[in-house]
């Protein structure tokens, strides 16, 4: 496998805000690579650097063997970039937007239509509708079609599913998966931790630093040990009660339950008894399955200590 993107010791600041600190990772050809982290982690900054729109303070970024600073002209033709914010012209129609992006790259819509057809098919039914009047999910489909129209070998998608409803999010990931058969390497960022499992590998980023890079499966391996779900009629008292116990390392809200990280001395039966002694009744504690969000909490907790 050859490397499509290589990011080496990259740092970038805006005035005195350090957006990225010595970031390093690489992306292999044909991979679906996820950059996962909360708002402000540095994802968009890294995308702007990869898209040749910013210059790093130190370190280097190479895309398809070309340096993003020296070879920016060449790279702009090779990269398909979908920025975080709406990149389309709201007053232009669907077909005008697509034509415009095609003309920027010296191609026509027909040249690569078969690549975008599965994504564009619903939009093609109303070509004259202004892009600004589309739903969130439809806008994303059009933006993706525009980023793909010159058939780039590498796609940079910056938070493409932010603000999109759950069904459209899932559909969008299915579309990305289907692009892989064309051999396109995809670098996609998200703040939705559950989307990590859609990627071959992910880099977890927080406060401008890479915390871990690996496959989602390997990252969560071993997390289940001493991880429990806890529920009770009074969840607030349960959370406060658990946090006072020496057998509890951490406890946080997770969906409708709490996730509890216990020490080796944690025994669900004993803990239920102790909580009952504090007047917290009806508690149920049972093993939980660790996911990327748990790892994020664990890694950032260790950071703070
Ligand atoms: P993310 O995409 O993960 O939300 P960003 O790369 O947008 O993260 O931001 C990283 C940090 O850099 C944040 O603290 C953000 O406020 C800051 N930042 C981003 N862009 C600018 C800018 N143009 N000027 C000043 N600070 C910025």
Mind explaining what this structure looks like?
The protein is an alpha/beta fold and 305 residues long. 32% of the residues lie in helices and 28% in strands. It contains 10 helices and 14 strands. Helix 3 (94-104) runs parallel beside helix 5 (136-148) and helix 4 runs antiparallel to helix 5. The two termini are 39 Å apart. The mean pLDDT is 93. The structure holds adenosine-5'-diphosphate.
**Tally of DSSP helical segments:** 10
Question: From the helix content, strand content and strand pairing, which structural class follows?
Answer: alpha/beta
The total of beta strands comes to 14
- The proportion of residues in beta strands is 25-35%
As residue ranges, the low-confidence spans are none
Mean pLDDT score: 93
Order of helices and strands: EEEHEEHEHHHEHEEEHEHEEHEH
Write the layout of secondary structure elements.
Layout: E1 3-14, E2 17-28, E3 32-36, H1 43-50, E4 58-63, E5 66-67, H2 72-78, E6 79-82, H3 94-104, H4 113-120, H5 136-148, E7 154-157, H6 166-179, E8 185-190, E9 201-206, E10 209-214, H7 216-220, E11 227-231, H8 235-243, E12 248-254, E13 257-262, H9 268-277, E14 284-287, H10 292-304
Parallel strand pairs: 3-8, 3-9, 6-7, 7-8
Antiparallel strand pairs: 1-2, 1-4, 4-5, 9-10, 11-13, 11-14, 12-13
Bound molecules: adenosine-5'-diphosphate (ADP).
Adenosine-5'-diphosphate is lined by residues 14, 17, 19, 37, 39-45.
Short description:
This protein has 305 residues and is an alpha/beta fold.
Task: Provide key terms for this protein.
305 residues, 32% helix, binds adenosine-5'-diphosphate, 6-stranded mixed β-sheet, 10 helices, 4-stranded antiparallel β-sheet, alpha/beta
């Amino acid at each position: 496998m050859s490397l499509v993107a290589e990011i080496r010791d990259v740092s970038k600041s805006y005035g005195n805000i350090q957006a990225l600190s010595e970031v390093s990772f690489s992306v292999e050809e044909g991979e679906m690579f996820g950059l996962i982290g909360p708002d402000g982690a540095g994802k968009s900054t890294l995308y702007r650097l990869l898209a040749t729109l910013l210059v790093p303070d130190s370190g280097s970024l190479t895309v398809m063997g070309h340096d993003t600073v020296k070879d920016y002209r060449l790279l702009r033709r090779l990269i398909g970039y979908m920025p975080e914010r709406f990149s389309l012209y709201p007053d232009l129609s669907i077909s005008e937007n697509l034509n415009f992006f095609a003309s920027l790259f010296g191609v026509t819509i027909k040249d690569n239509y078969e690549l975008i057809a599965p994504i564009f098919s619903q939009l093609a039914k109303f070509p004259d509708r202004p892009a600004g009047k589309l739903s969130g999910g439809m806008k994303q489909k059009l933006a993706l079609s525009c980023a793909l129209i010159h058939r780039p070998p590498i796609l940079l998608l910056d938070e493409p599913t932010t603000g999109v409803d759950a069904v459209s999010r899932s559909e969008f990931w299915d579309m990305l998966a289907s692009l892989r058969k064309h051999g396109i390497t995809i670098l996609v960022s998200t703040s939705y931790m559950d989307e990590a499992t859609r990627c071959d590998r992910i880099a977890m980023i927080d406060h401008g630093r890479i915390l871990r890079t690996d496959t989602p499966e390997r990252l969560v391996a071993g997390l289940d040990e001493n991880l429990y779900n806890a529920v009770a009629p009074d969840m607030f008292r349960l959370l406060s009660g658990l946090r006072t116990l020496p057998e509890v390392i951490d406890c946080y809200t997770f969906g409708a339950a709490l996730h509890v990280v216990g020490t080796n001395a944690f025994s669900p039966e004993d803990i239920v008894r102790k909580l009952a002694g504090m007047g917290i009744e009806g508690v149920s504690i049972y093993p939980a399955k660790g996911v990327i969000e748990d790892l994020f909490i664990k890694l950032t907790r260790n950071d703070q200590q």
